[in-house]
Amino acid sequence: MTNPPPSPHPIRELPDELISQIAAGEVVERPASVLRELLDNALDAGAMQISVRLLAGGVRLISVEDNGWGIAPEQLAVALKRHATSKISNLQDLESVSTMGFRGEALAAIASVSDLSLTSRTHAQPHAMVLQARTGEIHPAAREVGTTVEVQDLFFNTPARRKFLKTDATELAHCLDTVRRHALARPDVGFSIWHEGKSLSQWRAHSGPDAVSLRMSDVLGEPFLTESVRVNFSAGPMRVHGFAGTPAASRARADQQFAYVNGRFVRDKVIAHGVRSAYDDVLHGQRQAVYVLFVEIDPAGVDVNVHPTKIEVRFRDSREVHQAVRTAVDNALALPRLGQTANPNESPLPPSAPRTGSWPQTRLDWSAGHRVAELDALWGAAQPAIAPGGSAQWLQDQPLPPPSRVAPANPFQPSHAEPASALANSAPTDWPLGRALAQLQGIYILAENELGLIVVDMHAAHERVVYERLKTQWDGQGIECQPLLIPASFQASAQEVACVESNPEALHRLGLEISVLSPASLAVRSVPNSLAQGDAVALARSVLEDLQAHGASQVLERARNETLSTMACHSAVRANRRLTIDEMNALLRQMEATERADQCNHGRPTWRQISVAELDALFMRGR
What we know:
The protein is α+β, with helices and mostly antiparallel strands. It has four domains: 16-202, 2-Layer Sandwich (Heat Shock Protein 90), CATH 3.30.565.10; 221-334, Ribosomal Protein S5, domain 2, CATH 3.30.230; 370-473 and 576-618, MutL, C-terminal domain, dimerisation subdomain (formyl-coa transferase, domain 3); 481-569, Ribosomal Protein S8, Chain: A, domain 1. The chain has 22 helices and 22 strands. An eight-stranded mixed sheet has the order 5-4-3-6-2-1-7-8, covered by helices on one side. It is flat, with a radius of gyration of 30 Å. It starts with 15 loop residues before the first helix and ends in a 5-residue tail after the last helix.
């Protein structure tokens, strides 16, 4: 037996130049990734003002100038060495990173694929010093305290990589996105962006309680604020805050979704899914929510050392983060934005109106206070009677019937306990959605409030009211199921089999009966009534996937909501149904006390405000 020949490719150490090129390939993808690293360093250095200058979309020049602490002359050369950093010094520091940068690779990687110069001055220096990375020369320079990094001719020594860059306009757009992401997270820092010598954006630093909202308005525009709600939720040491857009502000693309973990912009599936779950009940189809959310968590509970670009993170308890994000956004969306003016920091109601303790300047609490309490009797008579021959009191006292027994009925009845005409005679300023005036085309309710005219989509509004009431009265009976004549068996993974064995109650409440045939196969024996004609195996796999990823409680809630949404749609008052003034007012009052009353179950708006100023403009009054 002969021995095999020696390997023609022996193992050997790579030269430093090649190592640097490999590292640069991981860190430097395009001009925007260079800019991101330089902005991270500037913020870590305590900068309060950052100026970005670009040429050719960042390909010819990326210059980042800050007024931070600066770098001492003897440390300039060290700063360009690989794995040299002031951010961490031991393993414990790495496990609880609190700075934007920490690897010590960025400057070395950038210098290996560009012509880089580093100019810096500390408070202790009489003048600045500049280091040319290619030659290693250091000489005096003039500038204030802080640091300027200039990156010229990116990828000049790797032409193959330069060919993968897009047009200057595209690269510039990516650079602008990078600055926006940093600017949103740091409203206390001023930013300016210049391209080809022209100013593109300048955002001054803000301070005080309104700093975040002012920066949102600067970067994303005033419409983002007017069509969003504040998010503020704490769960132990974790806090989720920011702004979440209303369903009406949703977009076709996910280009206005900003998530931050301890101030670092991230693209994280856990956070994204948590937000999407919160919008499940109000946003349908392929529309994308808009939001700016900040997750503050113990640095030891998140691993930022996952990817060279530092845009991905890994949570120690991802389910806890998911639940916190979902609850935070869901709670914010649940509060009705009734009577809100164009400026979210101003309230349209007089100071005597009841307000919440959480958001004293932005949200009103219509579920507490004497006004809501006075409506108990009226609501009792105006509740939708969703069973044939039933009454509103029946709905309050009896458990919810199965879906198959639900049918539409008269949704409004005159109140015997309290004359509804008292509402019709009230002043328009007494209620956020005002006093009903008339019905238009059997579709819309016209009402007058303090700001002007309210237009309400009658069916959409009542559908949301009925839906929310059905959700609160859900008594845990579960979804009715239908046995299959022939069970549908399929090959299953070990995880799917384990999921079936550990979640029998959840599957039963969802109307699914799945049994284990063998360690590698399952059988679907019953499915929900409403899905009896569908693909039983595909349904089972989808539910099991959701159960594994997100837990039984969320899957059950999603299924419940879909079922009750269908029920509410059929139970809501239909178009062309003539309502009396009393009935219209009753619906308006119900909307004011209903969560998510701003949109129907399908994500459409339920009402719109037309101010007196807008009406004056239509008729050219005052001109």
